[in-house]
Amino acid sequence: MTEKINGKDPEQTEQEKQPLLSQEEEKREPTGAADDPQVEEGNGGEEPAISLEQLKKEKEELYQRYLRLRADFANYRRRSSEEYQRLRRQVIEETIFKFLPVLDNLERAVASSGEEASLQTGVEMVLRQFQGILREEGVVPIKAVGEMFDPVRHEAFSREESDQPENIILEELQKGYLFGEKTLRPSLVKVSAGSGKEQEETEEKEEETTGNN
Question: Can you tell me the distance from the alpha carbon of 75 to that of 87, in angstroms, rounded to the nearest whole number?
Answer without folding.
Answer: 18
